[in-house]
Amino acid sequence: MDYVLILGAGSDIAKALSHMYASKKYNIYLAGRKIDELEKDAKNLNIRYNIEAMPLFFDATEFEKHYDFYHFLQPKPTIVICIFGYQGEQIEGQKSFKETQKVIDTNYTGSVSILNVIANDFEEKQSGSIVGISSCAGDRGRAKNYIYGSAKGAFSIYLSGLRNRLSKSNVSVLTVKPGFVATKMTENMDLPEKLTAQPEEVAKDIFKAQQTKKDIIYTKWFWFFIMNIIKHIPEKMFKKMNI
Amino acid sequence: MKSQKVTNWGNFPEIEASVSSFSSEKELKKLLTSSEEIIARGMGRCYGDSSLCKNIISTLKYNRIIDFNEVEQTVCCESGVTLEDLLSIFVPRGLFLPVTPGTKFVTIGGAIASDVHGKNHHVGGSISNHIISMDIMLSDGSISSCSKNNNSNLFWSTCGGMGLTGIILNACFKLKKIETSYIIQESIKAENLESIMKHFEESKDYTYSVAWIDCLSKGKKLGRSILMRGEHASVRDLEGTKFSNNPLKTGAPAKLDIPLFFPNFSLNTLSVKAFNFLYYNKQLSKKKKFIIDYDKFFYPLDGINNWNRIYGKRGFTQYQFVLPKETSYNGLEKILTEISNSGSCSFLAVLKLFGEQDNLISFPKEGYTLALDFPIKPGVFELLNKLDEIVLENGGRLYLTKDTRMTEETFNKSYERAEIFRRIKHQLDNHNKFQSLQSKRIKI
């Protein structure tokens, strides 16, 4: 059976995705930095779903190792989900470029670095499926999180270009833009309950969109409308708003 | 820190608490050192305030299966794994839980902290009986392994210890082989208390037994019941039935949902009486035998999402006690009379005969246990205080997992080893980090 490569397998959404794909009998590569935890995650998937699951060390910001990381994989995955990210601290980033660079390197440069390698392989094979987890935050710069937002926005544009290129090679590219999600990271934030999705719901949306070769999805779906409104507020007004 | 409203299954009491989760030992250690008083919480299916505290640590994201040995039929898993999870993984492989309470929506950590029992208590004991070993994170963040032979003080004070010794990280236990996921059930009507107790005595060789009891009937009919006993069906038992093509089928998702809290008046003596009449008389013959899937046999109420809402917004409490065998008849008679005279009772009343057990702090001991639901309304606590007296007079005790109102005095009188438990808890947790509203109330 096919392998799914999850890049950044430690997050709550990534875990929900690994369960989703494993329950559909896909084998899973779990790639990330916390290799001890990933080993336990892999064993868990293996026992629960009777599939192969393998932990792999992967650091998004060690760009020079990305080529070898991918070419070492045997068998090669047919689906790649690029989900790692780093939210960072906006205020901290405004003061220190080091924090800003970490946000850009993780969310944008790291994704581009690894997906460049994978795209070439898929293009050559004329098959495969790439899923990039971007963010609603990348749709418009907001004072509260524009450093993260701009890195995700750049990633969305990268995915759009990649899709345009690879559509000629039978390779699908899906851009996912999640809104609020209830994860360990957000459990102590005051998020509006009705707008906040569970990781399992997000995983289900992504799985369905990937399998049906969609181009761009918002999850939950209503974020499409919310972001459309936010995108269309004239800059003159937007700059005075506090959202 | 954001705080949110938290209640357990009885919807009473409701408190404001901060809830944090973890998915690795490292994350848990960080949470432990950053807050003063805390309690672990799984699915929140205890009825009262056992897992309530201003800082709650949710185990639900710590839910991996760690190991499974097919030959030995043993499994090790993290504490946030639910019984529902385990059933869906292992029933298709011909394995079943060694002990299960009346809901599968509990975590394994919660099940151990409550030392839960099931319909097979008289032959299998409670869940602690089946735990091979477990790891516990103590208040200083260190991890301690324990079993019945190794570190046994920690082991026995954690089984039934209501989360007060530390955070259960994981547990290993043995599963039970089954040929099919079906149960052969026999239902037997008993016209009064004497008759149902006789039936229990005669059903000792059955793996599972439990009775529904009508606690509003009086006089000669006092304690009229329906005994349900069961055995795992073999492949041969299913031959020629509609179940034979998929003998290890796992449960269907819940079908019904109670979307709203019922108005407080919906459950009154009249409606409960009517329900009890119908329930008792639905079965015409004295004895009935049939095949039923494990979900319907073990978890009839899990089929109705949010069934706790039928008791209304004010919530309810479950009163579960056990009386030693010698005093069971007299005690039960007194208690049932008290309840039927008060007219305030629920339609969920369950009677069971426990087998022998004598653990440090666990609830079960040999004798009859009765569980009753009471909606929270004026007068109910006075009634329960009266019942407490009868339970104490007869040498019984109350189940901490269901409790929300027991006094320190009642606890001390009924749990013979309360002092030893306190001493061990304070040795393990000398800064008293693990606390719940319940532990404060009964001063552990």
Which descriptors apply to this entry?
heterodimer; A: alpha/beta; 7 strands; 15% strand; B: 444 residues; alpha+beta; eight-stranded antiparallel sheet; five-stranded antiparallel sheet; globular
Describe the protein in words.
The complex is a heterodimer of chains A (about 240) and B (about 450). Chain A is about 50% helix and about 15% strand. Chain A contains 9 helices and 7 strands. A 7-stranded parallel sheet of chain A has the order 3-2-1-4-5-6-7, sandwiched between helices. In chain A, helix 6 (about 145-165) links the parallel strand 5 (about 130-135) and strand 6 (about 170-180). In chain A, helix 1 (about 10-25) packs parallel to helix 2, helix 1 (about 10-25) packs across helix 7 and helix 5 packs parallel to helix 6. By secondary structure, chain B is of the alpha+beta class. Chain B is built from 14 helices and 21 strands. Chain B is globular and about 60 Å long. The interface between A and B is medium-sized, with 15 and 17 residues.
Radius of gyration of chain A equals: 18 Å
How large a portion of the residues of chain B is in β-strands, by DSSP E? 15-25%
- Major beta sheet of chain B, specifics? 8 strands, antiparallel
Tell me roughly what share of residues is in helical segments of chain A.
40-55%
What is the strand arrangement across the widest sheet of chain A?
3-2-1-4-5-6-7
- Assign the structural class of chain B, choosing from mainly alpha, mainly beta, alpha/beta, alpha+beta, or little secondary structure: alpha+beta
Distance between the termini of chain B: 27 Å
Strand content of chain A: 5-15%
